[in-house]
């Protein structure tokens, strides 16, 4: 069952972000085995659509809640879920924006949109495939949200969708280090997220990650078409702990920088 969910999520993600498919094809051409370490979703902490609501689809597929994370400066909370028995089932990382920690104008702008559709939209178990359910976005509102949170602006436009898939470096033969993967990605013309350094984490911390910068795509706003960042691709290598178990959690310091892969930037 979970394979079907991720197949569909991949199709939606690759359709919107051509570099995702291009990167996957590069590794396939190198005869590498492509294993997906995790995917990530974003949402608001409003009880109609918070982490618990988005997690439902995965709980139904047998997933269980594992780690919890807090990002004070970004006003975010997050969890990750794992499948207890299915080997190679991707982990699922879900974060939510704490709305009460933002200005009144910001909160009003978000709430107006959230209230513009009926609760049934959010309660639908298919919500993870819906993207934005709020109609054509306003570029003025997008920029207003950006002033306080890049995450909120992204979420307002792109909604409920996977914002990245993550290639497991552990499953690779030739590209068996994060340095080799990054070089290969850059040699093929993709830009990396360098916030906090290109490589987040160390072998001692048992997890190293890097990511591309989001694809810039054309989006139709109320005011016209603008080019903004959509989704990115991540690369992760996990190391065994002293008991020989591969580290399976996330690291808040790394994640804090990975979020920034989808920040707005001038083209
Ligand atoms: C999630 C960022 C965190 C990781 O692997 O630490 C993350 C996001 O950008 O929504 O993916
Ligand atoms: Ni990630």
From TrEMBL:
Pfam families: HGLS (PF07063). Belongs to the 2-oxoadipate dioxygenase/decarboxylase family. The keyword Kinase does not apply. It comes from the Bacteria. GO terms for molecular function: dioxygenase activity. PANTHER family: 2-OXOADIPATE DIOXYGENASE_DECARBOXYLASE, CHLOROPLASTIC, DUF1338 DOMAIN-CONTAINING PROTEIN. Its EC number is 1.13.11.93. InterPro entries: HGLS. This is 2-oxoadipate dioxygenase/decarboxylase. Its cofactor is Fe(2+). Keywords: Dioxygenase, Iron, Oxidoreductase.
């Amino acid at each position: 069952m979970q394979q079907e969910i991720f197949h569909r999520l991949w199709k939606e993600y690759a359709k919107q972000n051509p570099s995702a498919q291009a990167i996957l094809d590069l590794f396939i051409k190198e005869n590498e085995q492509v294993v997906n370490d995790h995917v990530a979703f974003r949402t608001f902490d409003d009880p109609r659509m918070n982490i618990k609501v988005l997690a439902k689809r995965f709980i139904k597929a047998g997933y269980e809640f594992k780690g919890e994370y807090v990002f004070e400066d970004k006003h975010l909370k997050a969890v990750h879920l794992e499948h207890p028995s299915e080997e190679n089932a991707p982990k699922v990382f879900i974060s939510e924006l704490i709305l009460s920690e933002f200005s009144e104008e910001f909160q009003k702008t978000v709430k107006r949109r959230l209230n513009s559709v009926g609760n049934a939209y959010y309660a639908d178990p298919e919500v993870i495939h819906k993207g934005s359910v709020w109609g054509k976005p306003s570029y003025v509102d997008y920029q207003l949200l950006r002033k306080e949170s890049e995450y909120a602006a992204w979420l307002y436009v792109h909604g409920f969708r996977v914002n990245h898939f993550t290639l497991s470096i552990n499953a690779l033969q030739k590209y068996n280090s994060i340095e080799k993967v990054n070089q290969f990605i850059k040699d093929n013309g993709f830009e990396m997220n360098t916030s906090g350094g290109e490589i987040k984490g160390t072998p001692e911390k048992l997890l190293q990650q890097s990511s591309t910068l989001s694809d810039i795509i054309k989006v139709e706003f109320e005011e016209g078409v603008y080019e903004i960042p959509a989704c990115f691709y991540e690369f992760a290598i996990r190391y065994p702990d002293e008991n020989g178990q591969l580290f399976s959690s996330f690291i808040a310091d790394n994640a804090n920088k990975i979020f920034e892969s989808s920040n707005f930037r001038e083209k």
